[in-house]
Amino acid sequence: MDLSKMQDMLSQATAMREQMEQRLAATIVEADSGGGAVTARMNGKKELLKLTIAPSAASAAAGDITMLEDLIVAAINAAGRKADDAMQFSAVGLLGNLGL
Questions:
Q1: What's the pLDDT at 1?
Q2: What does each C-alpha distance from 26 to 9, 29, 45 come to in angstroms?
Q3: How far apart are CA 18 and CA 7, in angstroms?
Q4: In this predicted structure, what is the pLDDT of residue 31?
Q5: In whole angstroms, what separates CA 16 from the centre of its chain?
Q6: What are the CB-based long-range contacts (under 8 Å, 24+) for 94-100?
């Protein structure tokens, strides 16, 4: 394989990586726990964008903060799983366009 072909392949790989990064940043997922008591929104890069706690959940947790903490963790973990699924779907689409 000559050097120019290797450079072309590297250039294509770099372009694919940049495209994937843009897709992940633009992908938004949301998940909740406790029947909507806590909602987490994150992007495809698994960056937490917003965490919403329903007022009723906050007041109910006044006596048991551990319950609220568990709901927060569950919502974030569920959003992370959705982000993973979105990332896999996006990667399959990107690779499919290349005929791989």
A1: 62
A2: 26, 10, 9
A3: 16
A4: 97
A5: 18
A6: 94/16, 94/19, 94/20, 94/23, 98/16
Q: Which two tokens stand for residue 58?
A: 């906050």
71: number of Cβ within 10 Å? 22
Q: What is the pLDDT of residue 52?
A: 97
User: Rounded to whole angstroms, how far apart are CA atoms 77 and 31?
Assistant: 9
- Phi-psi category of 54—alpha, beta or left, where left has phi over 0 and alpha has psi -120 to 50? beta
What's the whole-number average pLDDT of the chain? Answer: 86
With 0.85 as the threshold, say if the pTM is over it: no
How far apart (Å, rounded) are the C-alpha atoms in residues 54 and 56? 5
Burial of 5 per CB tally in 10 Å (0-12, 13-18, 19+):
exposed
The DSSP code for 63 is S
- In 9-93, which ranges are E strands? 28-33, 38-43, 48-53
